[in-house]
Design a protein that fits this description.
The chain is of the alpha/beta class. Helix 1 runs parallel beside helix 7. The protein has seven helices and eight strands; from the N terminus they run βαβααβαβαββαβαβ. Strands 1, 2, 3, 6, 7 and 8 form a six-stranded parallel beta sheet that branches. About 40% of the residues lie in helices and about 15% in strands. Strand 4, helix 5 and strand 5 form a beta-alpha-beta unit. Bound molecules: zinc ion (ZN). The site of zinc ion (ZN) has 5 residues, from loops.
C-alpha cells in the first residue's frame, strides 16, 4: 500500500499574501509537501505565490473561482465558476467549497474536465471555527489523523489564529510518527 506511511495535508481558500507564505515556510522547515485548493480569484491577485507553491514541489487544486456553495448555486453558474478557476489553476484535483456539491454538479464537472478527481477529506481541523481554541484545533488533528488521512486546514484570515499555533505542532507530530507528508498526486 503506497499510502501506508503517508499523510496528505491540504489547505483551502488561499491564496493569501502573508498566510500562504507562512504556511510554505513551515512546510519547508518540516520537509513536508502539501496540496493547496485555491480560489481562482485569489490566484489572479497573487500569481507569484501560486508559482512559489509549484516551485516548492506542492500540488494545487481547483476550489472554484468565487467559493461557490454548490447546494445554493445553479449548475450553469457552478460550472462557469469551476471552469473560470480551471483557466488559472492547472490541476486535475477539485474540492467543492464547504464540501457541498450536488451529484449532478459532480458528474457535470467530470464531463467538462474529464480527468478531474473530487477530493474531500477525513480530518477536519476546525481551524475556521472561531469558537474553538488553538489547542482544540491541534487536538482535532492529532487525535484523528492516521496513515492515509487527508487533513484540511485553511490559509485564510479567519483560520489564522488557530492555524498559526496548530500547523507547526502538527508537522512535528507527523515527523515524530515518521509519516511522510505528501502532496496529492492522483
Ligand atoms: Zn473553502
Amino acid at each position: 500500500m503506497p499510502d501506508e506511511n503517508s499523510v496528505f495535508i491540504t489547505f483551502d481558500d488561499g491564496l493569501h499574501p502573508t498566510i500562504t507564505p507562512f504556511v510554505l515556510a513551515e512546510l519547508k522547515k518540516a520537509n513536508a509537501k502539501a496540496t493547496f485548493f485555491c480560489i481562482g480569484k485569489n490566484v489572479e491577485k497573487y500569481p507569484e505565490i501560486y508559482e512559489q507553491i509549484l516551485d516548492e514541489g506542492h500540488a494545487v487544486g481547483n476550489h472554484t473561482q468565487n467559493h461557490k456553495n454548490g447546494w445554493n448555486t445553479s449548475n450553469l453558474v457552478y460550472f462557469r465558476d469551476v471552469l473560470s478557476a480551471a483557466k488559472k489553476i492547472k490541476s486535475n484535483l477539485f474540492r467543492p467549497p464547504y464540501g457541498r456539491i450536488k451529484f449532478s454538479q459532480g458528474t457535470g464537472i467530470q464531463r467538462l474536465l474529464p480527468d478531474t478527481k473530487i477530493i474531500m477529506w477525513d480530518v477536519l481541523s476546525g481551524d475556521f471555527d472561531t469558537e474553538i481554541s488553538p489547542q482544540d484545533c491541534l487536538n482535532n488533528v492529532t487525535d484523528n489523523t492516521n496513515p492515509g488521512s487527508i487533513i484540511v486546514f485553511h490559509d485564510s484570515e479567519k483560520a489564522f489564529e488557530r492555524l498559526e499555533f496548530t500547523l507547526p505542532h502538527f508537522l512535528e507530530f507527523c515527523e515524530a510518527q515518521e509519516w511522510a507528508m505528501k502532496a496529492l498526486n492522483l
